[in-house]
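User: Predict structure, ligand 6-chloroguanine.
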Amino acid sequence: MKYYVMTLFPEMIEQGMNTSILGRAMESGFIELETKNIRDYTLNKHGKVDDYPYGGGAGMVMEAEPVYRCYEDICSEIGRAPRVIYLTPQGEVFHQGMAERLAAEEQIVFLCGHYEGIDERVLEEIVTDPVSIGDYVLTGGELPAMVMMDAIARLVPGVLSNEESAGDESFSEGLLEYPQYTRPPEFHGKKVPEILLSGHHENIRLWRQEQSEIRTRERRPDLYQKWADGRET
Ligand code: 6GU
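Assistant: Predicted complex:
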């Protein structure tokens, strides 16, 4: 998987992606990352990337030309028109199923906006998927791009070890994950559920399944309903 990120803050992306499991995945070559500084694609000598909005109003709008030239550079590197994800609160809300589909792509281009957004005309030409990460407003698309890259990377074969593996977790079956415990057997007077110490694998499996269902019903009734509906059909 190769990620391209078009941004005015490439250091932010590179800093954020170099640690932990993602850093390791990049070192071992399962994930590649190339950031493109949109400012490098301006034609004016001051590197100006934004201007006042037509029609007035607060803030600045990112100009179409540098974004388009940046996009063309990436296209010529890849040799075809790639999938371009524009991070915007106006996009479809990101979810696990989307991460699973995107994990099958060879390259993904992320376009991060700032200020009051990007000139609509270039978005119309290059964006294939506008995506939001939830119903709240952030200052730019960099954090959302990193959220998506993290969620997608861990589904790319080789990125997680068997131990870290992506089977038993929240959402893999449409339910939240069951509670986990480690030593000591008692903490602040609270004991680890007896069944987990029993060594009876089938009973443990059933208990965890039940805990997942209870937890999902209580915390995410919307997910629970979907799961319950899917189980019937
Ligand atoms: Cl993708 N961008 C911004 N700026 N804010 C957001 C978002 C994206 N998703 C949720 N809030």
